[in-house]
Design a protein that fits this description.
about 5% strand
């Protein structure tokens, strides 16, 4: 039973249970796409069906991770299959568990409000946004936002963080950002704003069917 209800893996050379950050990022990417598409359907079609399924799937997956074993989480299993040829990057299991507790709380609130009560409100919208941000930062940048609160709550330093961000060290030259690079980013933002101002009316005009395929299809339907 201890092997079933266990959080983290025992890996030689590590003093505490750890998890593979690569499969966690892959799983976060899978869940992000699912939640993003579900929310997009709500925005475009006012149809909450797909989002309700997504919330149920997300809640079940995260509950399995926290209260049974991450090894049995469907999204982490799929993530493991996807990155099976990549060298594992180990991360401390304890801070991940704390972060996933936050995920459980958010999922339960969504389940109650959206599914049990069958309602929507700014609360559900904000929670969906928070979930998307957490999943995106995990999958795209390898940054666990929930883990950031671990040290604040427990007043202890997290061990084995992704990219060794918990360890104080000087940046290498390739990691440093210069002022010209920052100015380039600011200039790019200004360029985007300028595009919006100059081409707002032009870009708002719907494009026409270049080859007339849609018109030809309408004519054939009439016949």
């Amino acid at each position: 039973m201890k092997k079933v209800f266990k959080f983290g893996e025992d890996v030689e050379g590590y003093s505490i249970p750890v998890l593979n950050e690569r499969e966690i990022r892959a799983a976060a990417g899978i869940l992000f796409v699912m939640m993003f598409l579900s929310i997009l359907v709500v925005i475009l079609k006012q149809d909450f069906t797909m989002l309700k399924y997504a919330v149920m799937i997300f809640m079940t997956d995260i509950v399995v991770r926290v209260f049974i074993n991450p090894r049995f989480s469907p999204s982490l299993i799929i993530g493991r299959l996807i990155v099976s040829n990549q060298t594992p990057e180990y991360v401390g299991a304890q801070q991940k568990k704390f972060a996933w507790y936050i995920g459980v709380a958010l999922a339960l609130i969504m389940f109650v409000l959206l599914i049990a009560v069958n309602s929507y409100s700014p609360i559900t919208g904000i929670i969906c946004l928070i979930c998307l941000i957490f999943l995106f930062f995990e999958s795209a940048f390898g940054i666990c936002l929930g883990c950031k609160f671990y040290s604040l709550v427990y007043r202890e330093k997290a061990q084995y963080c992704p990219g060794e961000v918990c360890d104080v060290k000087s940046k290498q030259d390739i990691q440093k950002t210069t002022w010209p690079q920052i100015l380039i980013v600011l200039g790019f933002i200004a360029f985007i704003v300028l595009l919006v101002v100059l081409f707002k009316d032009t870009f708002s005009i719907p494009p026409y069917d270049l080859f007339g395929l849609e018109t030809a299809g309408e004519v054939s339907d009439v016949k």
